[in-house]
Write a structure and sequence with these properties.
There is one protein chain. By secondary structure, this protein is of the alpha+beta class. Among the domains are: 2-129, P-loop containing nucleotide triphosphate hydrolases (Rossmann fold); 304-492. It is 70% helix and 10% strand. It has helices at 37-49, 60-63, 116-126, 132-138, 140-144, 147-151, 154-165, 168-185, 194-297, 301-345, 351-362, 364-381, 386-459, 475-492; strands at residues 2-11, 14-15, 20-21, 70-79, 82-91, 97-104, 108-114. Strands 1, 2, 3, 4, 5, 6 and 7 form a seven-stranded antiparallel β-sheet that branches. A hairpin with a 2-residue loop joins strand 1 (2-11) and strand 2 (14-15). The longest helix is centred in the middle third of the chain and has 104 residues, at 194-297. The radius of gyration is 75 Å and the shape is flat.
């Protein structure tokens, strides 16, 4: 490690205006007692490890200058050609802060660690594991308290001396060699060592080699025995070839006989199959002729296809009109029955008779007044003139009789007026009946025209020339022809 610059503010007695630079070579710091020479060393140690030499166990009040609330110290140093800066701030009432940076070219700072403990651990790592106690023992103690080095344990004292003499690398090599020796020779059952393991592996290989050699001798013996057996087998093979030629000849003869029987059986089956095929071909030829004749009967269907489609539509329209025709026929029958009933009720009624009855109605008032007056006069004169009273009574009775006749006629007139309403209804129903008859006549004409066109189209087709012609006066025959024509149209499609 190489110190480069130090800055301290309110750190014990130190109050630098600018950073203290450590130049190449030895730096001598001289001054009176209590001038702050040891404080510079404490500032370096505190910047690196966060601790001071004196007083031991120093508090914040021991470090921060009197009258100040906080102290600041930072140190720049170099390790293996790389520059670092460690900064620490000490507050009386707040936690202390620490930062470790790497100084990059251009004086840029790269953060490496924060917090007091992590910064101290990072600095120790940069210094190769050297702690505060080791630094103090190798520098400060060597000047003022050498007895401390003597009182340290052997391992700590050896590390300090190694740092002084730069023997740490030699010790590292010795430790590595010792560890490698233990790895090779071993230290006990838990760690047998590579040499012992290789020795055991070599002994195992030697045993396997001995077993291989014994097996090789057995293989050689078996090889010689195999050669002997092969010679015997070759002699037997020659004898077998001599005897097998006759056996093969006999076997081939038997195989030829068996094959001949199989071929004859297959030939018989093939002949039977050929006869069946010929019969099937003859049947198919007959079927083809029949189908050809049927195809001739369908000649002209392509040209009649549009007409048949149109006729099928007309037939559908006629079939749609048939429910309407049945409904109109039912209404016609109902109107005819109602008309017959009304005619029976109005039989003998004429407009002249109805007019006479109306005139009789106008006479009822005068007759009633005359009969009442006459009877009243008869009653008055009965006291003075009996004959006159009788004459007036007879006249009043006659007038009453005429009044009764006219009243009876008025009752008949009321009934006749009701019948006149029925008569008017009869005339309306008669007109409706004539209208229905006209509609039925038009529907029948449309159906007859469609049936005629269907007959004409079917007559042009060979397949339908046998159909009978529709008779104008036979509706049932026309419907049958139309139905067959539609079936023909569907078959053509």
């Amino acid at each position: 490690m190489k110190l480069l610059r130090l800055y301290a503010l309110n750190f014990k007695k130190l109050k630098f205006n600018r950073a203290l630079e450590f130049r190449e070579g030895v730096t001598l710091i001289s001054g009176l007692n209590e001038a702050g020479k040891s404080s510079i060393l404490d500032a370096i140690l505190y910047a690196l490890f966060g601790r001071v030499v004196r007083p031991p166990g120093a508090t914040k009040d021991d470090i921060i200058a009197y009258g100040a609330s906080e102290a600041q110290v930072w140190l720049e140093f170099e390790v293996e050609g790389r520059r670092y800066r460690v900064e620490r701030r000490i507050h009386r009432k707040k936690p202390s802060k620490a930062h470790l940076y790497e100084v990059l070219p251009g004086e840029q700072l790269k953060p490496l660690a924060t917090e007091v403990r992590r910064v101290t651990e990072a600095v120790e790592g940069l210094l190769g594991g050297i702690t505060f106690d080791e630094i103090v023992s190798s520098t400060v103690v060597a000047q003022k308290d050498l007895g401390r080095l003597v009182q340290q344990r052997g391992d700590d004292r050896r590390k300090v001396i190694n740092v002084f003499l730069n023997l740490e690398s030699f010790n590292t090599v010795l430790d590595s060699l010792s560890e490698e020796r233990k790895e090779l020779e071993g230290t006990g059952p838990a760690r047998p060592g590579r040499i012992n393991l290789e020795r055991e592996r070599l002994e195992a290989l030697q045993r396997e080699l001995q077993e291989f050699r014994s097996k090789e001798q057995e293989v050689n013996a078996l090889t010689r025995e195999n050669d002997h057996l092969a010679a015997e087998l070759e002699a037997l093979q020659k004898r077998y070839e001599e005897t097998s030629s006759l056996h093969q000849l006999l076997a081939s003869h038997d195989e030829a006989l068996r094959r001949k029987a199989e071929v004859e059986g297959q030939l018989q089956l093939k002949r039977q199959t050929l006869r069946e095929y010929r019969e099937q071909v003859a049947g198919l030829e007959n079927r083809i002729r029949e189908v050809t004749e049927q195809m001739e009967s369908y000649r002209g269907l392509d040209e009649a296809e549009p007409n048949l489609r149109e006729l099928a539509e007309r037939i559908e329209e006629i079939r749609a009109l048939e429910p309407r025709m049945r409904e109109l026929e039912a209404r016609r029958d109902r109107l005819e029955s109602e008309t017959s009933a009304l005619k029976g009720q109005l039989q003998g009624l004429t407009p002249q008779r109805l007019e006479g009855l109306m005139r009789s109605r106008q006479k009822i008032g005068p007759l009633a007044i005359g009969s009442t007056a006459t009877l009243a006069l008869a009653a008055l004169t009965s006291l003075t003139n009996t004959l006159l009273a009788l004459i007036l009574g007879a006249i009043g009775g006659a007038l009453l009789a005429l009044l009764a006749i006219h009243v009876a006629r008025m009752a008949r007139l009321t009934q006749l007026q009701e019948l006149m309403g029925s008569y008017q209804l009869l005339e309306a129903k008669g007109r409706e009946l004539e209208d229905l008859k006209g509609q039925l006549q038009r529907l029948r004409q449309q159906r007859a025209e469609a049936e005629r066109q269907l007959q004409d189209t079917c007559a042009q087709l060979t397949r339908y020339t046998h159909l009978p012609s529709a008779h104008p006066g036979a509706p049932r025959g026309r419907r049958g022809s139309a139905g067959r024509g539609r079936e023909g149209a569907q078959e053509t499609r």
